[in-house]
Structure formats: C-alpha cells, structure tokens
Amino acid sequence: MKKLPIILSIIVMAALLLTACGAKEPTDNGGGGSAMEGLPDLGGKTVVVAVENAYPPFNMIDEASGEAVGWDYDVVREICIRINCVPEFKEAAWDGIFPAMQAGEYDWLADGVTYTEERDQIVDFSMPYVTVGQVLLVRAGETATLDDFKNDPAKVVGTQIGTTNEIVAHETFGADRVQSFEDFGAAVLALLSNDVDGVVIDTISASGFMSENEGQLMIGSGITSDEQLAFVFPPGSDLTASVDAALQSMIDDGTLDTLNAKWGLK
Q1: 81, 26 contact by CB (below 8 A)
Q2: What is the pLDDT of residues 14-48, one digit of tens each?
Q3: How many secondary structure helices (H) and strands (E) does the chain include?
C-alpha cells in the first residue's frame, strides 16, 4: 500500500517536469526591467515625448473615448518596450516646438516631422520612418485642378504655421493667398466651413482627416513628393542612436509594417 503514494508522487513530478519543459517564457520587455536582446538598454528611464494631439493619424484625441491615440503612441511605446524606457507624453503646440527641442525642453518629438537640412542644424533626427508627399485637400466634389487653383486669385488655401507645408503653399500659391493656422485641425475646419478653398497637407494626414470627416473631403491634387518623416531629439541626444536601433529592429521583424498598416501609413 505504501507504493501507491510513491508512484503518484513520481507521476506528479514527471508531469511538472514535462510542463516546465514545454512552457515558453513570455516576452515582457516593457515591464521586465530589461531591453530586447541585442538592443540598447536605457534602464527604465522616463523620456518626455512631445505630441500635438491634433495631427491624425499620428496623434489625436479619440472622440469616443477621450483617449490620446495614433501611430506615434503605438510606435513610441513599442520602441520603449524594446530599449527599456518609459514614455511620458506631453501635449505641445507646434509653433515654437523646434526652439523648445533645441533647448531640451522635451526628450523626443513625435509628430510626423519632415526632415530638412535647415532643421537638422538645430536638432537631431532619427532615421526616416516613412516617405510622404504634399497634396491639396479640398471639399468633396471640388472640380478645380491644381492649375485652376494657381490661376484663380480668389481661391485661398490654408495650412499650418511653421511647417514645410506652409513653405510649399507660399511657393505654389503666393503668400498673400495662404492662411496659416495654429494646427491642421483648424485649417481643415476652415475648409469645411468654406473659409478656405483647400489645405496644403501631407498625404498621410490628408487621409487621416478624410477618415475623421467621412464623405466631406477629398485629395484634389498632388503638389510634392519624397519628403521623409522622422523623430526629433535635442542636439547631441544619446536617445537618437537607441531609437534608431529599435526602429531598425521593428523594420527587420515586420512590426513597423504592421503598425503602418493599422494607421494608414503607406
């Protein structure tokens, strides 16, 4: 009779050993206190990330939930999981953001920023994560071509102040026919209210605003192409190389493609 408990103990022990051998360690780089293997480890450091929350699909406030969402949030969080940092998102106005970054007021700017040589003189950029063009966003049903807009002095276009879009708008239509707004949301609202006739904006954000205003907007004409978007850091930041390493790993394993598809970046 004493053999039965012994046999049962052996069976239980064997089962536990088999379970342990078959179990797979869960991946938890975000809360586990370490970076993904082969990537820099920031030791759980908190990094302050500036966002506008007014630039869909990169960053915006979801009307239904009131939560801040977008490509920037998903990608920054994924990067921090990989290099063991904690993102602290802070809403910041676009106007004056480059002097703020130059002064180190934020650790990281995530806002669909176009790389330019002029900007590169005062801040650091990550590797580019997507290439976009600029387009003229118009009301649904608009039939005027880009040349029609250029040749009609009565047509006014909107854009966001301090952006490469503003530069292109001035070059394309003349500064006297361009109305610049604090953010693209205000420019699009002016378009929907018939206060301007078009908005010069990046292709991806044009699609984002079209999704938010279904059936009311359309892309009228392409204006430029081949502009690269990247993250921005204060000059000399040691965060730049770490973010680049994480971004490259996301490219290599397909994660960036998945998040791009989720938010409409192509």
Answers
A1: no
A2: 433 333 333 333 334 444 579 999 999 999 999 99
A3: 10, 12
How far apart (Å, rounded) are the C-alpha atoms in residues 101 and 79?
20
Q: Is residue 25 part of a domain?
A: no
pLDDT digits (tens, 9 = 90+) for 91-113: 999 999 999 999 999 999 999 99
In a domain, 222, yes or no: yes
Length of the chain measured in residues? 266
Same domain, 176 and 223: yes
Q: Note the pLDDT of residue 89.
A: 98
DSSP assigned state of 265 = -
Higher pLDDT, 11 or 128: 128
For residue 119, the tally of other CB atoms under 10 A from its CB is 18
Strand partners, 88: 48
Instruction: Say whether both 55 and 109 belong to one domain.
Output: yes
* Residue bearing tokens 């590797």: 127
User: E strands along 23-123, which residues?
Assistant: 45-51, 54-55, 59-61, 68-69, 85-91, 108-114
Question: What is the count of structural domains for the chain?
Answer: 2
> Are 49 and 112 in the same domain?
yes
Q: Are residues 120 and 235 in the same domain?
A: yes
Angle at alpha carbon of residue 159, lines to 155 and 160, rounded to 5°: 155
Whether the CA torsion 53, 54, 57, 61 is positive or negative: it is positive
Buried b or exposed e, range 160-194, using 16+ CB within 10 angstroms: bbbbbbbbbbbebbeeebbbbbebbbbbbbbbeee
